Amino acid sequence: MSLSLILASQSAIRAQLLRNAGLVVETRPARIDEEMIRHALEAEGANPRDVADTLAEMKAAKVSAANPGVLTLGADQVLELKGRIFAKPESPEEAAEQLRALSGRTHRLLSALVAMRDGRPLWRHVAEVRLTMHPLSDEFIADYVARNWDSIRHAVGCYKLEEEGVRLFSGLEGDYFAVLGLPLIEFLNWLRARGELTT
Q1: How far is residue 42's CA from residue 152's CA, in Å, rounded to a whole number?
Q2: Can you give the three-state secondary structure of the chain, one letter per residue?
Q3: Looking at residue 4, what is its pLDDT?
Q4: 76 noted as active-site residue
Q5: CB 29 within 8 A of CB 81
Q6: Could you count the other beta carbons within 10 Å of the beta carbon of residue 158?
Q7: What CA–CA distance (Å, rounded) separates 190 from 43?
Q8: Cα 123 from chain centroid?
Q9: How far is Cα 10 from Cα 26, in angstroms, rounded to an integer?
């Protein structure tokens, strides 16, 4: 019998990764003001890792409270470059600006996952991946954003490695699954250690 859980996210790729691993997943996005919370945390001096972890926990807590007894996952990603935290772009112009900032540089992507049941945190993990982007011309950036805006508007950093965004990179250090938004291996290992998953 497959383990059933709730993913407090509307991310199609996160849900697909869990389903591909043989889990039964229901998605129930958490309605929280991520931008306001992120700004408040930054104003308090929170580091990027703590921002990702806190947002993941708040999402899990909101959905878990409404679904007693069910394992609930909250997830969040934060992109950091030289102390600057990037959010999802609000316009094609902002997407192009972000890509110009990342062009030719190495940035950190922090992918947080928090598991809860009955509003109580059971497990948490923050994976860090370092990604190095090729130098990108302004012409390429403009064409790339125009072709991919409907997809990249939902992604921090304006790329998806499972799509054309993989072409932007010359190197990656870390977990590929974490780049997609879910440190899957660590989560499955935790389930196995609890006896909720067998091989």
Answers
A1: 24
A2: CCCEEEECCCCHHHHHHHHHCCCEEEECCCCCCHHHHHHHHHHCCCCHHHHHHHHHHHHHHHHHHCCCCCCEEEEEEEEEECCEEECCCCCHHHHHHHHHHHCCCEEEEEEEEEEEECCEEEEEEEEEEEEEECCCCHHHHHHHHHHHHHHHCCCHHHCCCCCHHHHHEEEEECCHHHHCCCCHHHHHHHHHHCCCCCC
A3: 86
A4: yes
A5: no
A6: 28
A7: 33
A8: 17
A9: 10
Residue 33 pLDDT = 85
Residue 79: CB atoms within 10 A of its CB come to 24
Q: What are phi and psi of 98, to 5 degrees?
A: -65, -45
pTM of this prediction?
0.91
Q: Residue with structure tokens 């950093």?
A: 157
**Residue for token digits 């929280």?**
32
| Tokens, residue 184 | 């899957």
**Considering 76, 143, 150, 175, which one is annotated as catalytic?**
76
- In single-letter form, the type of residue at position 50 comes to D
Reading the chain (199 residues) residue by residue, the pLDDT tens digits are 467 899 999 899 999 999 999 999 999 999 888 888 988 998 898 899 999 999 999 999 999 999 999 999 999 999 999 989 998 899 999 999 999 999 999 999 999 999 999 999 999 999 999 999 999 999 999 999 999 999 999 899 999 999 999 999 999 999 999 999 999 999 999 999 999 888 7
